[in-house]
Design brief:
- The protein is an all-alpha fold.
- It has two domains: 1-33 and 197-224, no CATH class; 34-141, no CATH class.
- The chain contains ten helices and no strands.
- Helix 3 runs antiparallel to helix 4 (57-76).
- The relative contact order is 0.11.
Length: 224
């Protein structure tokens, strides 16, 4: 978001007209079209990936997704990421919790361990943990329902109206919706968007009629 605010400052003094769009566009490209800086930023992200403090499907999946996202972007920028396997494996192992790391060393780590093997192992482990966590939650729900039997249900509880349901549905549907790929995430987390050169990102923002400051579609930068 800091980058978006900085971009907004660059063009805020330019009147938003058709004639001035090219001027604003060129200013933004001149400021941000720096492939070397972009590469360094994504490499830095790989070295600062978050640690999995305890065994958790969410934390492990976030580690996998985070790592693969930055590797994909760097590969799209013609960096030889396929030759970084040993380095990435070491970095990911250093971020795993003790239980998961022990399981990887005992069962999932072949002699010629590859990054693909590690990713497959972690994704399979996430699926197992998700099933276990789901069962645990179900037990908690069942236990809670048994406790609720000791209490009477509240009377005169207002039923949700059709408008309430529609509002809730709209909010749920729009939350985390990517305008570019329609995925369940915001645009500034979209791998496809992040992999684009700066000039293409700006074109997409113009095509999608988004505010270049906050990447939303319900206003423009002038009223952001």
């Amino acid at each position: 978001m800091e980058v978006l605010r900085a971009a907004a400052k660059i063009v805020e003094s330019i009147e938003l007209t058709t004639e001035n769009y090219t001027v604003a566009w060129n200013l933004l490209i001149k400021r941000y079209d720096d492939p070397r800086a972009i590469k360094k930023k994504h490499i830095q992200c790989l070295f600062t990936m978050s640690r999995v403090e305890r065994e958790s499907s969410i934390a492990i999946r976030e580690l996998v997704d985070y790592t693969l996202k930055h590797l994909r972007i760097l590969k799209s920028m013609d960096l030889p990421t396929d030759s970084w396997n040993e380095l990435i494996i070491h970095m990911m192992e250093a971020k795993l919790d003790t239980v998961t790391l022990r399981a990887w060393e005992q069962n999932g780590n072949p002699v010629d361990g590859s990054l693909e093997n590690l990713i497959d192992f972690l994704q399979t482990r996430c699926q197992i943990l998700e099933r276990i966590e789901a069962r645990s939650k179900q037990k908690d729900v069942t236990k809670g329902n048994d406790s609720d039997k000791h209490y009477s249900k509240p009377r005169n509880q207002a039923k949700p109206t059709q408008s309430d349901k529609s509002s809730t549905l709209a909010t749920t549907t729009n939350a985390g919706k990517c305008y570019l790929c329609q995925g369940g995430h915001f645009l500034y987390h979209c791998d496809k968007f992040l992999a684009m050169p700066v000039d293409e990102r700006l074109k997409e923002m113009q095509r999608l009629k988004l505010c270049i400051n906050c990447l939303r579609n319900d206003h423009f930068i002038k009223t952001c």
